[in-house]
Amino acid sequence: MVINILGSGTSTGVPEVGCRCEVCTSSDKRDDRLRCSGLVDVDGVRILLDCGPDFRQQMIRIDDFKAIDGVLVSHEHYDHVGGLDDLRPYCRFRDVPVYTEESTANRIQKRIPYCFAENLYPGVPKLKLIKIETDRTFVVSNNEGQSVEVLPIRVIHGKLPILGYRIGNMAWITDMLTMPEEEIEKLKGLDCLIMNALRIMPHNTHQNLEQAIESAKRIGAKQTYFVHMSHQMGLHSVIDAALPEGINLAYDGLVINI
Ligand SMILES: [Zn+2]
Ligand SMILES: [Zn+2]
Description:
Metallo-beta-lactamase, Chain A, alpha/beta, 14 strands, binds zinc ion
């Protein structure tokens, strides 16, 4: 399995427009953070994890144009779905399947209703919204019949219940503040956990660094990478060096092989 970190930033991205702090003006490329997203290639199947407003730019950087067999959406906030319209080029392979729970699917339909109209105007992305059951695995398949199982994980984003996803021995969890105890069991035996850590100071809907380290230890993956970071996390070089063994900050362009 190969995991590409397409974006490791929070909703504003880093640098933030108009900010001159040491992180936003850093010359270290690892301090440049597009909106949070990942790309997983496993057993011939390509899965996109969220599709934020930087999706187009992220796929130009990746420079490996092939079908996206499924988009897994965590929740409907703009920084996680703002790039769905830019899936247009991928519709030449097939209608792009977008997997999420019913409440999120309904809100996506309201956000971009023209993608789901009866008579689509030319050029509109052809998205196939697939409403998943949150308590069982589902399957994402490619055009050649290869398939991968995905397990939804319930996490709480402030008060909003949203989804993380486990694919084999990796899991993707973003925008979490808390996690119901019973979900921990579903995350046992992970080689790689990618999870959100917003900044040093606490926040009312996202884990801060301390809470994220605590969660990472409870889950106990071999290796954990943090994403969805704001400029208030501090410099990559400083913060990453001080993290416990097996926990690192992700950065845009990081490629993880497991
Ligand atoms: Zn977010
Ligand atoms: Zn959010």
